[in-house]
Amino acid sequence: MNVVAFERKPVTGVWSESELNTIVAALSAALAPSTGRQWETGATENGDAQFYLLGSLPDQACVLCLSRVGRQYVLEDGSGRLLFEHRNLDLVVLHARAAVPSTSWLMVRMIALWCAARSVFHEKFEPMLTETEELLVQFIPQLAALA
User: Fold this and answer.
1) What angle do CA 31, 100, 96 make, to 5 degrees?
2) What is the DSSP pairing of strand 38-43 with strand 62-69?
3) Residue 84 forms beta bridges with which residues?
4) Which range has highest mean pLDDT (33-37, 54-58, 67-71, 122-126)?
5) 83, 109, 110: which is closest to 96 by C-alpha?
6) Sign of the torsion formed by the C-alpha atoms of 76, 68, 90 and 21
7) Domain boundaries, the chain
8) Rounded CA separation 92/79 (Å)
9) 44 near 13, Cβ under 8 Å?
10) CA 108 from chain center: how many Å?
11) pLDDT tens digits, 75-101
12) Are the C-beta atoms of residues 62 and 51 closer than 8 Å to each other?
């Protein structure tokens, strides 16, 4: 038996239009203008295509990275940890959508501020109100006797 070696088509660092449409459509909620996030494409050292989901300005830290290595899609978080890999792009973008935090940083800060304010009230002001109530209970009969 003879084996004929076919030339492999070189992989370029460019996403096809259908791939980009699939990725952007899946991450549309994460790319909403209110989030301040943006996306960019690039290529690895070997010329494999990459898609970056960037955070808001001014830092624009990488939130998510999707790479196409050969025919395999690799999903990583902003720290470079592997989240998922598969040959099916639709399956990978489902994992990408789940990996993007849906709560905005402003909302997280507002929740933290609310919790801090409640904590301060309960620790500082509530004991003073309780002590004031006890003082009134003790001194009102004496004030009533003077009247």
Assistant:
1) 95
2) unpaired
3) 75
4) 67-71
5) 83
6) positive
7) 17-102, 104-147
8) 18
9) yes
10) 11
11) 998 888 999 999 999 999 998 888 887
12) no
Residue 106 to residues 77, 101, 102, 117: CA-CA distances in angstroms? 21, 13, 12, 16
* pTM > 0.90: yes or no: no
Q: How far is CA 10 from CA 1, 47, 69, 70, 90, in A?
A: 27, 9, 12, 9, 23
Higher pLDDT, 98 or 127: 98
**Residue 82 DSSP SS3:** strand
Q: How far apart are CA 84 and CA 66, in angstroms?
A: 10
8 touches 77 (CB < 8 A): no
Retrieve residue 42's tokens. 């690039």
- Judge contact between 22 and 90, C-beta under 8 A: yes
- Helices 17-26 and 89-99, axial angle in degrees (round to 10): 30
